[in-house]
UniProtKB/TrEMBL annotation:
Coiled coil: none annotated. This is THAP-type domain-containing protein. Residues 1-91 form the THAP-type domain. Keywords: DNA-binding, Metal-binding, Zinc, Zinc-finger. The keyword Repeat does not apply. The lineage of its organism: Eukaryota, Metazoa, Ecdysozoa, Arthropoda, Hexapoda. GO terms for molecular function: sequence-specific DNA binding; zinc ion binding. Gene3D superfamilies: THAP domain (6.20.210.20). It comes from Pyrocoelia pectoralis.
Amino acid sequence: MRCAVYGCGADNQAKAFSREAKFFSFPKDKKVEGIWRHLCKRNDKFNVRSARICSKHFSDDDYKRNLKHELLPYKPKKYRLPKKEAIPSKNLPLLGKKFSLFALSKFCEKTRILKIIEIILYVLSLNYVNLPKIVDDDVRVLKNQNGGKLQK
């Protein structure tokens, strides 16, 4: 099962799955369901009956409080259930952006390295293509400034 939020990589079948992440069904209340669907920021149509949102997108205040579980050292399989009016508020895609901060944080290092390589290749291509012309122009300017003599 995968999280329905765009850019979230939570998947309970992945090898690196953290057991701390729980998956919750979309609410039955149509208004709250519409808000959840909107916050997923997905362009494709998806079935909310089978879609789930992981616990990474909820704050601690969004869960029902269960005193029985707090007082007794007992944690059942589904020990944290979201409130009926809970709205996902953490690690969501930005409005109007193609990628979410949540998704970009995972690929930040890779993207930064690729950007640096792209800049280096661009600078190298400029230097190799235009280097002789730039050097010749600089030499002419230096000669004109120094009365025809080139100084180091």
